[in-house]
Amino acid sequence: MIVATIRRVAHVMERVSLLLGALCLLYMVSVVGLNVLARIVFDATGTALNLMIPGAIEQVSYLLGIVAMAGLTASLSHGMIAVDFLVTRLPRGGQALVARFWFLVLLCLALVLCWLFFHDMQATYARGEESQDLRIPMFLIYGLAMLQSLALAVVALREMLVSQGDHGEIA
């Protein structure tokens, strides 16, 4: 019952992470592409026409962390990629045990990140900190990172409970 619930929640979190990562990546590519074109126009007009997106570097840098966390969360359903001379020679049960151990390590890492991002979110909210160029409240950025860390923890928990030692490069 509990494992089935964790599976359902983890599946939803994987799908949301995949969608979030795809949207953020699409936005990042668009911002960078438009800024490159705007820079060409800027240089061609002798700096008379500036169409560059304000805070583009800031936007892309904050979204990069979210894309990385979302990608990691979404990719775990196919097992971890492992290039290991020893583990592949273990019996199926041994491979599952090793995989579950690494998912436990990943779960602990995700929970530590979640805890740290939560405290950073609280601190930046209390201080009223904003990003440098766009004045985005920093607690929103840390909050999104905390939610992505939580999603990673739930997916790692599911994989720790059900993994049979499958590897992403073999599947």
From TrEMBL:
GO molecular function: transmembrane transporter activity
A GO CC term attached to the entry: plasma membrane
Family annotation (InterPro entries): DctQ, TRAP_DctQ
Residues of the signal peptide: none
Chain segments annotated as transmembrane: 16-42, 62-87, 99-118, 138-157
Domain Tripartite ATP-independent periplasmic transporters DctQ component, chain residue ranges per copy: 28-161
Swiss-Prot/TrEMBL keywords: Cell inner membrane, Cell membrane, Membrane, Transmembrane, Transmembrane helix, Transport
Membrane topology annotation: Multi-pass membrane protein
Organism superkingdom: Bacteria
Keyword Cell inner membrane appears in the UniProt entry: yes
GO biological process: C4-dicarboxylate transport
Database matches in Pfam families: DctQ
Location(s) in or outside the cell: Cell inner membrane
Function statement: Part of the tripartite ATP-independent periplasmic (TRAP) transport system.
Oligomer status and interactors: The complex comprises the extracytoplasmic solute receptor protein and the two transmembrane proteins.
Family: Belongs to the TRAP transporter small permease family.
Name this polypeptide is given: TRAP transporter small permease protein
Organism: Pseudooceanicola antarcticus
Organism placement in taxonomy: Bacteria, Pseudomonadati, Pseudomonadota, Alphaproteobacteria, Rhodobacterales
